[in-house]
């Protein structure tokens, strides 16, 4: 019986770690461009129009950032910018016209997948590993991340 309990906890712990690793992996694709802006073209994007999943706009580079050719028009995810005329601080992904929002709101938005992974993993930790305090901490952290991202992007 003890061996089955140990096996269940081991499998559930591995599943929780897998969920968290997937959340970090999914977040890092965008977060690295937000957090590590050294050598990347940075500036301000002015939204000129939005489609179903992306917004386009003009890009004005900040003095002394990035190198090489900087595009005059860039694309950003629609969840970041939905109002025509909005001015958003952005960094460009290398060798693309794709922009990511920088600053606090961009940082929080980049880590949204990790917030969701924390919420999912908290259920596994609570039910499978039987660590309710740890699960509550994970759930509150994930919920706070999701909520703060929504609040900073909405207002």
Q: Overall mean pLDDT score?
A: 91
What is Rg? 19 Å
Total E-strand runs: 5
Number of domains: 2
How would the global form be characterised?
A: elongated
Low-confidence regions = none
Tell me the series of helices and strands, N- to C-terminal: HEEEEEHHH
The major sheet is characterized as: 5 strands, antiparallel
Our count of helices gives: 4
| Secondary-structure-derived class | alpha+beta
Strand order of the largest sheet: 3-2-1-4-5
- Helical content, roughly? 40-55%
Strand content: 15-25%
The N- to C-terminal Cα distance equals 54 Å
Architecture overview:
The mean pLDDT is 91. The longest helix has 34 residues, at 2-35. The protein has four helices and five strands; from the N terminus they run αβββββααα. It has helices at residues 2-35, 103-110, 112-129, 132-154; strands at 42-50, 54-61, 73-77, 87-92, 99-101. With 155 residues, it is α+β, with helices and mostly antiparallel strands.
Main attributes of the structure:
alpha+beta, 2 domains, five-stranded antiparallel sheet, 4 helices, 54% helix, elongated
List the helices and strands and how they pair.
Layout: H1 2-35, E1 42-50, E2 54-61, E3 73-77, E4 87-92, E5 99-101, H2 103-110, H3 112-129, H4 132-154
Antiparallel strand pairs: 1-2, 1-4, 2-3, 4-5
Helix pairs in contact: 1-2, 1-3, 2-4, 3-4
Question: Could you write a compact summary of the structure shown?
Answer:
The chain is of the alpha+beta class. It is built from four helices and five strands; from the N terminus they run H-E-E-E-E-E-H-H-H.
């Amino acid at each position: 019986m003890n061996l089955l309990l140990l096996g269940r906890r081991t499998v559930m712990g591995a599943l929780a770690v897998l969920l968290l690793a997937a959340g970090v992996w999914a977040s890092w694709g965008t977060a690295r461009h937000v957090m590590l802006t050294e050598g990347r073209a940075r500036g301000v994007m002015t939204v000129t129009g939005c489609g179903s999943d992306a917004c386009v706009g003009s890009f004005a580079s900040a003095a002394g950032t990035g190198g090489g050719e900087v595009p005059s028009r860039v694309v950003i995810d629609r969840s970041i910018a939905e109002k025509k005329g909005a001015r958003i601080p952005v960094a460009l992904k290398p060798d693309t016209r794709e922009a990511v929002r920088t600053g606090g709101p961009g940082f929080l938005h980049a880590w949204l997948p990790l917030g969701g992974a924390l919420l999912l993993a908290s259920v596994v930790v609570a039910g499978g590993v039987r660590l309710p305090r740890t699960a509550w901490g994970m759930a509150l952290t994930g919920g706070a991340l999701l909520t703060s991202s929504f609040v900073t992007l909405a207002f």
